Amino acid sequence: MAEFVYIIIALAVCISVHEASHAWVAYKLGDPTAKMAGRISLNPLRHLDLLGTIMIFVAHFGWGKPVPFNYYNLKHPRRDSALIALAGPASNLLTAFVIAILIRYAPMPVIVFNVLQAIYMLSIVLFLFNLIPIVPLDGSKLVGLVVPASYEDWYQRFLSQGPMYIILLIIADRLIDGATGFSLLRTYLEYGYELVTVVLMLGT
Question: Which of 43-47, 64-68, 137-141 comes out lowest in average pLDDT?
Fold first, then answer.
């Protein structure tokens, strides 16, 4: 029961930080859409997505409610879209770094340590998972930095497909895992987690 509570707290913190960072960077880059929608907030109720939350418990990774922004309010739409997207994973990585410092140097009760550890772990998972270049994850916006202008129509269609791609990826990965015992997503997250942890520990 305690572990479930830790996960819920971590989920609320990590997704709120992630989505609020998207909204704040969008506002700083000239688009007030997310601010007007109340998304520059650490209130988890403004950010939690039902499907993304369910996937946390079913598939051990998920996402929050997408932050709205108006592509045409941005001075440099392709670049600024990528910066807005990158803000989410970057905020999770920064959260993990701060927690690594606290865990390493600050004495604390066991319950606080457990909560921070859960936030740390989920922060890194969200950082890694959201860098996957598939809609609706943030990595799909980073793809726009390398897509030639002549493929703009294809890229916009790619972005408009919604969560279909990631759901198909998860289903395919689960089927392959069941048949072969090998999960590409699990391997990516496990090795990525270990690498990020080593880097963060060196940084502290």
Answer: 64-68
The residues annotated as belonging to the active site are 19
125 burial via Cβ count (<10 Å: 0-12, 13-18, 19+): buried
Number of domains in the chain: 1
- Three-state DSSP at 48 gives strand
Residue 56 contacts residue 62 (beta carbons within 8 Å): yes
Domain range for 155 is: 2-203
**DSSP assigned state of 136:** T
State residue 151's pLDDT score. Answer: 80
* In the block, residue with structure tokens 């060196």: 202
Taking the alpha carbons at both ends of the chain, their separation in whole angstroms is 32
The single residue listed with the structure tokens 């369910």 is 54
| Alpha carbons 88 and 85: distance in angstroms, whole number | 6
DSSP 149: G
**Is the whole model's pTM more than 0.85, yes or no?**
yes
Tokens 């202008």 label which residue?
149
As given in the structure block, the two tokens for residue 131 are 């860098």
Q: Alpha-carbon distance 65 to 45, whole Å?
A: 10
Altogether, the residues listed in the chain come to a count of 204
- In angstroms, how far is CA 201 from the centroid of its own chain? 21
pLDDT at 125 over 80: yes
> Quick one: pLDDT at residue 164?
77
Cα 159 to its chain centre, rounded Å, is 17
Residue 61 CA to residue 122 CA, distance in Å, equals 9
